[in-house]
Write a structure and sequence with these properties.
The complex is a heterodimer. Chain A is 27% helix and 27% strand. Chain A has a single domain, classed as HUPs (Rossmann fold), CATH 3.40.50.620. Chain A is built from seven helices and 14 strands. By secondary structure, chain A is α/β, with parallel strands linked by helices. Chain A is globular, with a radius of gyration of 23 Å. Chain B is an alpha/beta fold. Chain B has two domains: 194 residues, 3-Layer(aba) Sandwich (Rossmann fold); 117 residues, TPP-binding domain (Rossmann fold, 3-Layer(aba) Sandwich), CATH 3.40.50.1220. In chain B, the strands form four sheets. Chain B has a seven-stranded parallel β-sheet, with helices on both faces. A five-stranded parallel β-sheet of chain B has the order 15-14-16-17-18. The chains are: A alpha/beta, B alpha/beta. The interface between A and B is large, with 77 and 89 residues.
Chain lengths: 291, 337
């Protein structure tokens, strides 16, 4: 079958899953700045699905597209170490404050600039926003169909792609035509590890901003190896209307944020002894908590 | 009048629980906003479905009935909901935060260019001021973010409708009146959906009927990563059986394969409010607490006295589950009638 062009949407996020003692401030709130920045977990599942298609369909190319601050280039490199071919970083101060509608607008403009594609594969949701909205909203703006909660790509041919979806209490197998946007669930296969050869090849890949203070040697190396250039796009590069970006382009506004503070309760501490356990059970029976 | 619309999801010919919970909440919001509660059901063989919706106080029920509309696929449902909202100009639209709702709602919001807040844990009506402009009677969409470490209040002042998705178990299901009857408006599907929207082919579907009702259980014995193995969970099942309760698990226990996903309690699982919650070997990460911290009484069994769960527990038993749980069973049997 013909080779496919796949765009993987990825996001660099703070690691909110394991908020350890170091990231907790004295007042019981999370110190967001102390959390390490990682490749959003479900986007890694998405990348693995793209890579598994590349394994099966020779000639397939995978492009990582991410929107974020300059350092988000790190996840494009990470994607390339695992098998992606290239990447685009859309970065601009004017994207700041974007909700999912504004973000999906920027992403869809960038996709239009990238050009022809067969599949867009994204993680279902990011671990900071947890909305699962950007994927479907980008699909709507691009006028393409979507299949969400994908767990596995069962079959792929020139006409259609067959996908197993993981729903709340079971599975569903669907077939869809191209072009298609797929969002991948964490129940899908984990992403393969970095490949040593690819790591060697791409470890010097940089965006234009990152090479601003580069040495002569580096600049020469980059001109000889164009694959080391990570494209960096601004608002103008993607022909975006600033009225649909940032706070202005976001219908939803944050009115207030409250930190979740662990509210300690007066708890009675017991031990394993027969005395303590029997007393507890008697008390629970007496106050009718249990039978 | 700008009304409230609830998208009611169907499974096996019935409106699912989360949609009924949203109808209950929608009815209260409609009362606060002095407008009406409306609902839309899209599926196949919908005859009689109004009997399930009207008791929750629905004034107008829109029905789109066609064999290709069930099971759910994105484009046809999105097309119907979008056109309906454009015609009727609702001020608030609510969806369950299910695999259907989280697939459909963002698609609708993108088309209508309106605001959508996912996984709301609370919805209230209030005012908002921005740049000197005052907005009255907006929907405050309150939800956890940042992995559950913060609670954000989101508002959508200008680009209406205000849309939100809500997870099952967050709102309470309440019948408005068993004798309430509203009006049915049948939508001509061909006017709302293009033939080419029916483009996804559903090849197979295996949905299991829920055998477990954890949401309704008054006593829950839940296990976390600290339980250690699938075999060790048997102790929890024994305790639950003796007390007449159900067994649940934290996400870590589910991910480790100790217990099935259907029993997962927490931000990405079920929300429960039992009379008694016994947490065994659960550390009490915020994502788990979000699903059970409204339990009337919480007992924690943990070898770590510093586990966060101990701070929200009424009783914190410091020790080994393998020692404590059998004793609980023994002393319960000895002392109960």
């Amino acid at each position: 079958m013909k080779a496919l062009k796949i765009i993987v949407l990825a996001k660099q996020v703070p690691d909110t899953r394991n908020v350890g003692k170091d990231a907790m401030k004295a007042d019981g709130t999370v110190n967001r700045a102390a959390l390490p920045a990682i490749f959003n977990p479900e986007d890694l599942n998405a990348l693995e699905q793209a890579l598994s298609i590349k394994d099966r369909v020779p000639g397939t190319t995978i492009t990582i597209l991410t929107m974020g601050p300059g350092r988000a280039a790190e996840i494009i490199r990470e994607g390339m170490y695992r098998g992606a071919d290239n990447g685009f970083l859309i970065t601009d101060r004017r994207f700041a404050g974007s909700d999912t509608l504004a973000t999906s607008y920027a992403i869809s403009q960038a996709v239009k600039k990238i050009g022809q594609f067969d599949l867009i594969i994204a993680g279902r949701q990011a671990i900071d926003g947890d909305t699962a909205q950007v994927g479907p909203q980008a699909a709507e703006k691009l006028g393409i169909n979507q299949v969400t909660y994908a767990e596995e790509i069962l079959d792929i041919n020139d006409k259609k792609i067959t996908i197993k979806r993981r729903l709340e209490r079971g599975i569903e197998i669907v077939a869809a035509a191209y072009p298609l946007l797929i969002t991948v669930h964490s129940s899908a296969a984990p992403c393969r590890a970095r490949n040593a050869k690819l790591l060697m090849k791409f470890k010097h890949a940089r965006t234009a901003s990152e090479t601003q203070n580069a040495t002569e040697d580096y600049i020469q190396m980059q001109s000889q190896r164009p694959y080391l250039n990570i494209e960096e796009w601004s608002v103008e590069d993607i022909n975006a209307d600033i009225n649909w970006l940032g706070l202005t382009g976001s219908p939803t506004k944050v009115k207030a944020i409250e930190n979740v503070v662990l509210q300690a309760k007066e708890s009675k501490v017991l031990n394993e002894s027969d005395f303590d356990i029997e007393s507890l059970m008697k008390e629970l029976i007496v106050n009718h908590t249990i039978g | 009048m700008k009304n409230i619309l609830v998208y009611c999801e169907i499974e096996d010919g019935s409106i699912i629980d989360v949609s009924l919970e949203l109808l209950s909440k929608g009815k209260k919001l409609a009362s606060d906003l002095q407008c009406q509660l409306e609902a839309v059901v899209i599926g196949s063989n919908l005859g009689g479905i109004e009997k399930q919706a009207f008791p929750y106080g629905v004034e107008t029920l829109y029905l789109a009935d066609h064999s290709k509309l069930y099971p759910f696929t994105t484009l046809p449902h999105a097309s119907i909901v979008c056109k309906l909202i454009q015609e009727q100009n609702h001020q608030v639209v609510l969806f369950g935060a299910t695999s259907v709702g989280r697939d459909l709602a963002p698609r609708v919001a993108s088309f209508l260019k309106c605001g959508l807040t996912a996984d709301c844990t609370s919805l209230v009506i209030g005012d908002y001021t921005e740049k000197g402009k005052e907005y009255k009677n907006l929907l405050y969409q309150i939800r956890p973010a940042f992995g559950g470490n913060i609670i954000a209040t989101i508002v959508n002042p200008e680009m209406h409708p205000q849309m939100a998705t809500v997870r099952e178990g967050v709102m309470k299901k309440e019948i408005f009146s068993n004798t309430h009857v509203g009006k049915i408006q049948t939508l001509d599907v061909q006017q709302y959906v293009k033939e080419e929207d029916f483009v996804i082919q559903i090849i197979e579907r295996h949905i299991e009927k829920s055998k477990i009702n954890i949401k309704g259980a008054q006593i829950i014995v839940a296990g976390g990563y600290g339980v250690g193995s699938k075999e060790n969970f048997k102790l929890l099942f024994d305790l639950a059986e003796v007390l007449g309760g159900e067994v649940g698990g934290s996400r870590a226990a589910v991910d480790a394969g100790y217990i099935v996903h259907e029993r997962q309690i927490g931000q990405t699982g079920i929300t429960v409010r039992p009379k008694l919650y016994i947490a065994c070997g659960i550390s009490g990460a915020v994502q788990h607490r979000a699903g059970m911290d409204q339990s009337s009484m919480i007992i924690s069994i943990n070898t770590d006295s510093k586990a966060p769960i101990n701070q929200i527990a009424d009783y914190a038993i410091i020790g080994d589950i393998a020692t404590i749980v059998p004793k609980m069973i023994k002393y319960y049997k000895q002392n109960s009638k």
